[in-house]
Design a protein that fits this description.
With 213 residues, this protein is an alpha/beta fold. 45% of the residues lie in helices and 16% in strands.
């Protein structure tokens, strides 16, 4: 089962990423993604090992961004691959059978390609402009999510990402997504994790009730 709330780590240093991951775990995060950019592979591996040790204490799933070799070495729960990273089928051949693979998508075609390659979840976005990521893909807005999920009708979990705040959840859930990935909204206040998870659960219950009325 893919958790509905993903925390993507932030920080100016690897140490800050680890501090933020620990804070996320303390406040109840069920999945965190270590997203280190512009550092050496050795540093990614060192940091990933420490992140694995932290998340193991709390029973939190750990996803490594970009690098499936690191994900395998530290026995993370999986890897998230961007559009310019390794092909999911290549990663799948190297990973343990129990490790999950997520992929980044911006269009319907992206989603279909990832599904064909057997990913376990799709990170679809961005919802709106965000400064977290350079070379941002075109924003989707709520209508973009609606159009893609209505066409796909897939059981592959769709995780919305990109500038999402807690105020977006009600409208986002109505688009048919499985969950959300959040960075800045949580890093600025880790106590929001509980509210986000409760809102996701409540929204899903309302959506299910509406479906069976």
């Amino acid at each position: 089962m893919i958790p509905k709330l993903h925390y993507i780590s932030q920080g100016n240093t690897p140490e800050t990423h680890l501090d933020n991951i620990q804070n996320a775990c303390i406040h109840g995060a069920t999945l965190v993604q270590l997203r280190l950019k512009n550092v050496s592979l050795d540093q990614v591996l060192i940091t990933a090992k420490e992140a694995r040790a932290i998340t193991a204490q709390y029973g939190t799933k750990l996803i490594i961004n970009d690098n499936y070799e690191v994900a395998k070495e530290v026995k993370a729960d999986g890897v998230h691959l961007g559009k310019t990273d390794s092909c999911p089928t290549v990663a799948r051949a190297h990973l343990y059978s129990w490790q999950i693979i997520g992929g980044t998508a911006n269009t319907l075609e992206d989603c279909q390609s990832l599904m064909d390659k057997g990913v376990d979840y799709i990170g679809l976005g961005p919802l709106r402009f965000t400064t977290t990521k350079k070379n941002l893909s075109p924003v989707l807005g709520y209508n973009g999510y609606h159009q893609i999920t209505d066409t796909l009708k897939t059981k592959t979990p769709i995780i919305a990402i990109g500038g999402i705040t807690i105020d977006d959840l009600t409208d986002l859930i109505k688009t048919g997504i499985h969950g959300i990935a959040v960075s800045g909204e949580i890093t600025s206040d880790f106590t929001k994790i509980d509210a986000l998870q409760q809102s996701l659960g409540a929204s899903l219950i309302e959506e299910q009730r509406h479906t069976f009325e």
